[in-house]
Amino acid sequence: MPVTVVANTNTDDVSLERLRFIDIAGAPPFIVFDDLEEMKKRCQAAGVKSLIITGTSLRESRNAVKLAKEHDFYATVGCHPTRSTDFDNHKDGGPEGYLHSLETLISSNLTGRGRVVALGELGLDYDRTHHAPIEVQKKYFRMQLSLAKKYHLPMFLHSRAAHHDFVQILTEEGFGTNGGRDVGGAGGVVHSFTGTAEEAQDYFERVLAKNTPKYRSSTRNSSSMDHVRNRYALQPQFFTPSFASPHVDAPWCSCTSTHASKPYLNELPPNYRSVFFPPATQPERFVMGKPVKGRNEPTAVGGVAWVVYCLHRNAREEALARGEQREEIPFWKIARKAYKNTIEVFKLQELADA
């Protein structure tokens, strides 16, 4: 489906001081930021108050916690589905030893600076079974869910081309309603989602709690963005800022001119653009204080929120043209509610007044 761009007649261009973001998905290779302190300054200018560094294996989870403690971020601990064979290959006690090591990392870092705020990244990825067979992924996805129950942690979930098994395992383990709270769970986020609108509906209505951020749909292609747009167009009662949790997966997944989000990002007011996407240099011409072209930064989270705003705005304009009433949700409100919900789901109350 082609992207429809409606003229932006009311950007509700508020000052940057009113915008606050938390990037909930900093990838473990964040260590590539040898100019990390400069990057943090750019985040501050863009309203990014903190980051959550994602663990994708035992090794990377340890790195995530270490980085979080050093820089006053937060961390998740877990094993990504494509790394599921790490359980079987673990030399110190096999799968049980691997799970115990994850648990120890969690239990010893639940409080204080750089604390663990979620279990993950965990789930299923049937697009990349060359990394880990399906049955191996399913086995260790299920095994890790015990830690979400025991430590009452929200989940940072991953689902690609595996919807049926993904929902089935979560349901069988008690996460089929109310975010798993009946079994000790605490909801969560489906971070990597590339399925259909109907599959997304399952997450909203069955797997995760209604008052928490839900899923991340890529801004790379129009079909993924249609999930966000169509939810508002077809079921406006579900498309509220409560369901927004923008994040950027830095240092990967930069927004580029080939992505379907580009027409929307072209509409960014200059004061937003200058801090969400500050001018970058080529890697071979690196200058301290400047971002590097092709290396994504958490500052872009504001740009992702802007795309969500634009999708909502366009769907509302089309609904009004059909004679239907739709609530207008300005950009600042999407950003503010996403910020508050992220604080709630990950229990980051100390950032409430940041």
TrEMBL record:
One of its GO terms (cellular component) is cytosol. InterPro entries: Metal_Hydrolase, TatD-like, TatD-type_Hydrolase. It holds the Pfam family TatD_DNase. Keywords: Hydrolase, Metal-binding, Nuclease. GO terms for molecular function: 3'-5'-DNA exonuclease activity; metal ion binding. The keyword Hydrolase applies. Gene3D superfamilies: Metal-dependent hydrolases (3.20.20.140). Belongs to the metallo-dependent hydrolases superfamily. TatD-type hydrolase family. This is Mg-dependent DNase.
